[in-house]
Amino acid sequence: MIHLGLRPLGRAAVLAACVFSLSACLKVEDDNSKVANELHEQNVLLAEQNELLSQQNEGAKIALFGELIDYRSEQAIENFTVQVKAGLDWDEPIAFSGGEFTLDNIPPASDIALLFSSPEGAFLDRVYFLGSRATGNSESYQDLGVISVSPGVDRTFSITRIDNSEPVPDLEFYAYSQLGSSDYIKYYAHRSQYSSETTEYTLTLPDGLVQWVYLDLDTDDDGSAEYYVEGMSYYGDTVANFRVDELSSATHFRVVPLGEDTTVALTINLTILDELGNAISDATPMYFEDSAAIADAEYNAETGQYEFSVDIVDSGQIIIPAFYNSEDVYLGSASLSINTTIEPGRYYIYADANTYSSYETYSDNGVINLVAVMREVTPTSDLELVLKTATPSGGAFGARFFYSSAVTLLPNSVNLYRENALTVVRGNDSSSDTVLPGVTLVSTEDLPIAATGNLSLGSTLLTVRPNNVLSGGHDYRIEVEDIHDNFAELNVDLYNDFFEFTVKSPEIFNINQLVLDNDNYWNNGSRIVSQTTAGVSSTRTDRSGGVYAFFPLSINNLENFSLSRRIVTNNGTAENSFATYEIVRDGNVRISRAYTVSLAYEEQVQTQSYYYSLFEGTSLPDGEWYATSVANWMYDNTSTAANTVTFDFVIETREGEVSSGTISLPVN
Question: I need a labelling partner for 613 at 20 to 30 A (CA). Which of 163, 312, 402, 566 fits?
């Protein structure tokens, strides 16, 4: 067992430390002479003790002792020498016999190196790095225990290049057998010698005392390896290492020089199959290196293979683009990555065709035969909408769609709709339609409007404009349906290339256009519609209803508009009733859209996909409005019973003109 010397503080050293501490803590008080004298005497005594301890340390020495044995036989070594290095230089060798040794006059608390040698060459030199322990005594001992040495055994290595089998003479093997550690162990390594006659490296190692052998691959000390070693693990970036017990007495290594571009002429015969194993003859495979297309394939109809003739340096890739075959089946893309190895003629192949696989193949006289499978897939595209913008201005409008790559418009790519347009079909409108008398069909639909799309900026910008000025006050939607992705060669319908907008009404709103209606099918004492479309007379009586304020679409051309309810007159009785209604704020209408259809109460109304609230018993014509509730149950205003609501109003136009006032409106 090897014992490394520890460094405990000796008694004298501890005492010296205590003396220093006491000296640092004692102070002389000027105003107390007795205390000052006592402290002075104490300091003198401590100084004398420090001097004594210093003299003792100068004379302190360590004696190192131990036993040297043969590693295999465990027998004591009869004759050997030991050299000591306690500074920069080695002392003269000291001869010993019988295995045991004692080394006197070793300085304490020091880094020591011992070199064990055999004058007769019975064993290889071995160095021992240790630290002598600290002591304050004039004579101390440190047991180094049993130290093993062994005779040298030659290990022979040969190294050749894989590409041309030429020997490599400029590398070095080395190993360590020292005991202990030091920054200087590299100077005591066992190093190989190269023979140009045998083209072999010889490394002499102490038998059984070395576990690892290292191979330095950085011949010019630039921090980078000059060779790659076949099948060997690495230590760092520039050193390969291997266990001694895993090697034979003569081991051969093959290396590949790094940093040298080796070009290999290669013929690649590629068979392309579908999932059923049928040969595909109309694909367009291409060979790439460093993402650049290098070669097209020639199809050999006799062999059913695509042939490439290339000069491969490190790796290459064959890409087979996706396409529609003659049966209009879309076959997904496939690729083959071809990678050279350190062994000439051996290649790693990585195949990707919706499933991944890898394998090795070997060339035969510079020819490799590969197989790729193309599978039926759903077409995909990487086309994206990057940005969409619109610039409404009055009745004119333009929408722009920026795409990530070039596109082509198809016949139905560009569409413009007026959204939720009201359609009313009454049972007596026509004898040729399918709406029967007594029934009215109310529905909404998106009305198509003629528009034109134009491409620019390398076919990446689509600009859509209506062919005619759009009518104001309505909602519109530009929708781009299928377009052709020029890169993927696919027709694509993106989910987000649409634009919704509202065209402001060009009309000027007048407060007198505001209408109140309780939707009770009566107005000013008379039925609004007296019979159904089947000619059946209405029997509904006059009654009260919730009052709504109806606004024309032109309010969407205002900047701000508010109503403040002040007085409600119900059957001639006026009462204060306060409420505020924000109709338009900052150019945005704050109330809901509504449809009105004028019908008899008994008319059977069928609705289909209508979007807004529907009122069937107002005095208003069929149409679209903005509406909001402004009062609870009230009767119609008549000459004999006043039913009105009085409001204060404030209106601001887009141009910043502000008007205000009070208005009393009858309930229709």
Answer: 566
